């Protein structure tokens, strides 16, 4: 059994209005050293696979086909055996 921790964020070239609002709010609270905030998603997926390579391939396929919009989003993931 494998567990994938998937992090999805907007590409740097894509405007992140939600992140901008959070940055401005942090500034209003006195956190003047915060220069940028990017908002994203975090997913945990448990899956069965024969080995690490098969699990990594399956996670990439899931991200490319459904979980991530490759036009505006990037992703990374961590894979641990559970």
UniProtKB/TrEMBL annotation:
Keywords: ATP-binding, Cytoplasm, Ligase, Nucleotide-binding, Purine biosynthesis
Enzyme class label: ligase
A GO CC annotation given for this chain: cytoplasm
SUPFAM superfamilies: PurS-like
Pfam families per the UniProt record, alphabetical: PurS (PF02700)
GO molecular function: ATP binding; phosphoribosylformylglycinamidine synthase activity
Catalytically driven reaction(s): N(2)-formyl-N(1)-(5-phospho-beta-D-ribosyl)glycinamide + L-glutamine + ATP + H2O = 2-formamido-N(1)-(5-O-phospho-beta-D-ribosyl)acetamidine + L-glutamate + ADP + phosphate + H(+)
Classification via HAMAP family: PurS
Entry function: Part of the phosphoribosylformylglycinamidine synthase complex involved in the purines biosynthetic pathway. Catalyzes the ATP-dependent conversion of formylglycinamide ribonucleotide (FGAR) and glutamine to yield formylglycinamidine ribonucleotide (FGAM) and glutamate. The FGAM synthase complex is composed of three subunits. PurQ produces an ammonia molecule by converting glutamine to glutamate. PurL transfers the ammonia molecule to FGAR to form FGAM in an ATP-dependent manner.
UniProt-listed NCBIfam families: phosphoribosylformylglycinamidine synthase subunit PurS, PRK05974.1
Assembly mode: Part of the FGAM synthase complex composed of 1 PurL, 1 PurQ and 2 PurS subunits.
Protein name stated in the entry: Phosphoribosylformylglycinamidine synthase subunit PurS
Underlying gene: purS
């Amino acid at each position: 059994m494998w567990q994938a921790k998937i992090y999805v964020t907007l590409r740097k070239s894509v405007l992140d209005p939600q992140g901008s609002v959070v940055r401005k709010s942090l500034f209003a609270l006195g956190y003047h050293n915060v220069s940028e905030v990017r908002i994203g998603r975090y997913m945990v997926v448990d899956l069965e696979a024969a080995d690490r390579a098969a699990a990594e391939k399956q996670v990439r396929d899931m991200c490319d086909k459904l979980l991530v919009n490759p036009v505006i989003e990037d992703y990374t993931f961590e894979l641990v055996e559970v």
